């Protein structure tokens, strides 16, 4: 019988992991989450749209901005993926590695992690394209809408089933991306709905806190600064809040993994005890 996820216990364990490794996590988050996010916000600002800009022109501007920022976006994404695995190693490795050792191990797992994401993304993208193309052949708009909705829900479900790839790579030291995907699929069987509820509630909590804090910060910055300084400070606060949320999200992944994977092998220190 597959274990059932206890969201309350997972949150307690995640908070415990963050508290127990606060200093190391702050250092890693600063390097892999905060600085790349801040650099992206500063060097790739949102395109400014004049009032009354036609929708087609807006889409063209957004497409141009996306294309121009793609190289930096790839670098930022890779750094965040490496940071995710590094944090998991720091929080779960009973050997208690240093930050340098954890970063080295994290980069070793980055290749399999990227390959796993490419496999999942390619498979989901191909399936979506096939389904939408088949629906369009019917010429019935209602059928197309239903197929698109069903495909979207299926993509969410598959993403949840693959959510534990990073913990498998970090905690089990698996280096085969296909085996990591299979392991995640096995661990999450029967818990997709509980995981979705857990992550949605955490995301809603972050959204509320983020919105309130940014509102207060925005008022203060408008009253005390202007121009480029105001934009940089706003981006810095936003990146810091987002980085903090990502730290907790990684800890949540570790806590979910431990619940669904069961107790560690005999003789291995249980970091969740």
Kindly list the characteristics that best describe this protein.
mainly alpha, 273 residues, globular, 9 helices
Give a description of the structure.
The protein is built from nine helices and no strands. The longest helix has 40 residues, at 99-138. It is mainly α.
Number of helices: 9
Q: Structural class, judged by helices and strands?
A: mainly alpha
What is the percentage of strand-forming residues? under 5%
What is the succession of H and E elements?
HHHHHHHHH
DSSP summary, beta strand count: 0
Unreliable residue stretches: 265-269
Note the main sheet. Answer: none
What is the residue-mean pLDDT, rounded to a whole number? 89
Task: Compute the separation of the termini in Å.
Answer: 23 Å
Radius of gyration, CA atoms, in whole angstroms = 21 Å
What share of residues is helical? Answer: over 70%
Task: Categorize the overall geometry.
Answer: globular
Write the layout of secondary structure elements.
Elements: H1 7-20, H2 22-43, H3 55-92, H4 99-138, H5 141-161, H6 165-171, H7 177-187, H8 192-224, H9 227-261
Helix pairs in contact: 1-9, 2-3, 2-9, 3-4, 3-6, 3-9, 4-5, 4-6, 4-7, 6-7, 8-9
